[in-house]
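Predict structure. Input: Transmembrane 6 superfamily member 2, 376 residues.
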Amino acid sequence: MQLPAVPGVLAPSLLAIPVAFGINGATTLADSPLVLMLTVVLVLAGLFSIILLTSGVSHFQDPLFCVFVVFSFTSVVDLIISLEEDGYISGFMEVYVREGEPHLRTAHGIMICYWDGIIHYGLYLAMIAAIGQRKSYRNLGLFWLGSLLMSIVVFLLGNLIGKYSSDLSPAFLLNLPYILIPIWAGVRLFQQPKVLPCLSPEKVAEEQRKCLYQRPQDMGLILVLLLTAAFTFFRGMVVLDCPADSCFEYIYQHEPYLRDPVAYPKVQMLIYMFYVLPFFCLCIYGLVLPGCSWLPDWSLVFAGAVAQAQFSHLGSSLHARTPFPYQTPEDVWWSFLFTNVFYALGPQLLALRCLRCPAFFLPATPASLHATKKHQ
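Output follows.
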C-alpha cells in the first residue's frame, strides 16, 4: 500500500531524521572522550582505506603522504575548535578542550587553530595533490615546515612558563608528535632534489657580476630587512623589561599584549630576537654576496614561520578573549596593524625574490668563474 505524499510535511520530517541523528551524535562525542578518540581512529582508518582503494599503493611510497593526510584531519579538528570557541558552532570539542587542553581557549590558542585549520589545511591539500600528480612540493613543504615549527614551539613554551602551566594534563603529550614528525619531515624535504631553472653558466655569471647598486630590488629588500631587524631587536628589549622610556611607553601604549601573563607574546618576541634576527643579518649578507645557495630554501622556512607568528600575534592582540588591559588600544590600531603587517611582509618578499630570480644565489660553476675572471 502506497502512502500518500503530503507536500511540505513528509519531506521535512525525513530530512529531520539525519539532522537529529547528527546533533545527537555530536552531543555523544562531546560527552565521551573515549567515544571521540574511537571515532577519530575509525575516521582515519576509513580515510586511508578510501585512498588505498581509489589510488592504490603508489601514493604511500612517499611517507610524507601519510603525514599530510593525518595532519589534514587534525587541521579540520583545529578549525572546529576555533569556530566553537568563537561561538559559531557548539557541542563538538568542548569536553576535550576543557579537560585536555584548556590553553586552546586563549586568544593565542584560537588563532593558531584558525591558522592550522585554514592555511595548513590548504597546504596539505596542495601537497597531497602534488604527490598524486608526481610533482615537486618541496617549496610548499618548506613553507609549511617553518610555519608548523614556529606555531608548536611558541605554543609549548608558552604553556610551560605561562599562567596555564599549572593546568597541564597528560593530553599535553599529544603535542610531542608535532615536534618530532616535522623535524623528520624537514630532513626529508631538504633531501629532495631542487627544481633548478634552466640557466646557462654565462647567464648566472652575468647576474652575479652585478653590483648592489645595479640591483634596486635587492637594495629595497636590504632596507626592509634592516628596518625589520631593528624592530625585532627593539621588541626583544621591550619584553626583557628594558628600563628605557621608549620601551616603557611602547609596552603600555602600543602593544600591551606583550605583558599578557599567558607568556605566548613574550616567547614569540624572544624567538624573534635570538633566532629570526640573526637570520635577517644572514639574509642581508646573502643579498650582497652572490652564490649563497642556502638562502632560497631557508627564506621559505622563515617566511612560513614569520607569517604564522604574525597572524597569531595580530589576532591575539585584538581578540576579545584577551583581557581588556592587554588588548591593543583603539587609538593605535592603524599604526599597530601597519608595523606588524610590514614586519610579516619582509620575509615573504625575500622568499618571492629568491624563487623568481634564483640565478644570483646559484653556486658558481667553473664556466661562470672563468667568465667572471675574463670580465675582470
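The two ends are 98 Å apart (CA to CA).
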